Amino acid sequence: MIDLFGLSGKVALVVGGGQGIGAATAHRLSLAGCAVAVADLELERAQAVVAQLHEAGGRAVALQADILESGAGERLIEQSIAGLGGFDILVTIVGAAKFGSVIEVTEAEWDRDQDRNLRYFYFLCQAAARSFIRRKMPGTIVGMASAGGIGAMPFRSAYGAAKAALIHLVRSLSVELGGYGIRINAVAPGLTVTPRTAARMGVDHVQAEIARIPLGRLGTPEDVANVILFYASELSGHVTGTTLVVDGGAIEAPPYDLGPSRAASERNRKALGIDLGPGADHA
Hints:
The protein is of the alpha/beta class. The chain has helices at residues 20-31, 43-55, 72-84, 107-134, 157-177, 195-200, 203-212, 221-232, 259-272, and strands at 11-15, 35-40, 60-64, 89-92, 139-144, 182-189, 243-246.
């Protein structure tokens, strides 16, 4: 079988890999041939994912760290090398938002959103770049941006500002590190169904969001993981400094219910005898 992704024998470190998008990414990378170091704030979550990877025949280790702590990135990279014999790919999923009006947000809450969405990413990239350069190896970094770093993010403006800065940072670092053979890109998901989002979303909220998405459904962790796999692999070997939005087209859509447009599209498909196959119906 052809190694289409060029990942056979590579080692990937997935920070925030214990659930949601991170767990889906660990599974995708393992299936493509990577050994995977799954790092999470909670070791039990990382261990559960690693057990699944082992069961499927993959190589993996579970690591624990609070990535916001100074030096955590260096330690995780060293542990990945010690446990799996290398370090070629960094994927980081960590990020969270504080909900609140600009009128109410405190300085501490602003700092917290910058720390957990931007600051840690900068120094984790620094640690990865130093490791790649010291070992005279090319490397790949994939960061987690957000559609909220491109469009407006009312009531989560500190988060949106941090993600916008991350997107700019990816562009700057791609130029700075490209001469070493290091690629860096980011994925910008829209609303994605993860354990965290599922816990805070009601039925009405879900339906309102679906009504705005041209593809007619919320994103899944696998949707995002597929793009991360592309960025991590040789399929994107000449791609760096970019951010790919994964939101079903929501960022381009008008802020109203697309139901009438979908109904018209369905009528047109039937009139033309077009069958889009299983899974084509909108939610």
